[in-house]
Specification:
Layout: H1 4-39, H2 41-49, E1 53-58, H3 64-75, E2 80-86, H4 88-99, H5 103-107, E3 115-120, H6 127-138, E4 143-147, H7 150-191, H8 194-202, H9 207-243, H10 253-283
Antiparallel strand pairs: 1-3, 1-4, 2-3
Helix pairs in contact: 1-7, 1-9, 1-10, 2-7, 7-10, 9-10
Length: about 290
């Protein structure tokens, strides 16, 4: 049977392993989540941009054949994401429900116009691009007016650029902190075995021989922590996909695969490097310095 001291040592060892795995998991989960955001940045920004609408209103004398021909022509343009025709009677019904009054009956005619509601692809939601599209649409003799919110376009683009800048800064800061945290956890774990390291060295074991089991043990902890981080990232991605289905985050496997591979490799690389230098430090210490 194991003695009380052996049980204590075993519990302490398990506690040390748990703290290392937890540190690796938390750090890699955060970095992986930020990595998913960075990789899907364009898709996420386009999702917000593509919700900005533009309405095209037509002159009173335009007939349905002309509208159908124009819809076919406009629908072929590369900047169009979707295009919906709104009949003026349908628009009147919508307005009546909104204001709660039958303004058509009050006025004796329907003052609204036939229109198209359209959304652009995200790449074209820029101040200069959308202005150029607006001018080209207005050149058509059938068009009476083009309406959209240019201030909203500027605001969305400005906010996306600001968020992107800070996400990159935060990612860089957390990457640096992650290395420090994992390195500290591993060094503490190895510190408790510094006497074993020195004993092995005194009986003639080479530095490479002494380092090998420590590095392999740390790499295994790194792989376990990375595995838990990958599971967390997949759960978070699936949750975000359920809340924002238009992004189709789970449908595109390549970004997910890249992030998961990156997290797994990062867990191995960081633990390998940290353990190498931590063991090297204790290998280079004199026996008297081990008690400091």
């Amino acid at each position: 049977m194991a003695t009380a001291y052996e049980r204590y040592q075993k519990r302490r060892l398990l506690s040390s392993y748990f703290s290392v795995i937890l540190s690796i998991f938390l750090v890699l989960f955060l970095l992986g989540s930020l990595g998913m955001f960075v990789i899907n940045y364009e898709k996420i920004s386009n999702n917000f941009k593509e919700n900005i609408p533009m309405s095209i209103y037509f002159k009173e004398d335009v007939n349905e054949e002309q509208l159908a021909a124009y819809q076919t022509e406009l629908g072929k343009q590369k900047f169009i994401k979707d295009l919906t025709f709104v009949h003026k009677d349908s628009a009147a019904n919508t307005h009546q429900k909104t204001i709660g009054e039958d303004f058509v009956k009050f006025l004796g005619f329907n003052p609204l116009q036939h229109s198209f509601d359209l959304h652009f692809k995200g790449a074209y939601i820029e101040k200069d691009s959308i202005k150029e599209i607006e001018l080209s649409i207005k050149e058509n003799p059938l068009v009476s007016e083009v309406a959209y919110d240019p201030e909203l376009v500027d605001l969305v683009n400005k906010n996306i650029k600001t968020i992107s800048f800070w996400v990159l800064i935060i990612t860089a800061v957390f990457a640096f902190i992650s290395i420090l945290l994992i390195n500290s956890s591993l060094r503490l774990s190895i510190y408790s075995k510094r006497f074993i390291i020195k004993t092995m060295q005194m009986v003639g074991a080479t530095k490479a021989f002494i380092r090998k089991p420590f590095i392999w043990n740390s790499v295994k902890l790194g792989m376990i922590g990375a595995g838990f981080a990958i599971i967390g990232i997949l759960i978070l991605t699936a949750y975000a996909d359920s809340k924002l289905p238009t992004l189709e985050l789970m449908a595109d496997k390549k970004p997910i695969f890249l992030v998961c591979c990156g997290v797994f490799l990062l867990g191995i690389v960081i633990t390998y490097i940290s353990t190498y230098f931590a063991t090297q430090r204790f290998l280079n210490l004199k026996s008297d310095d081990l008690y400091l």
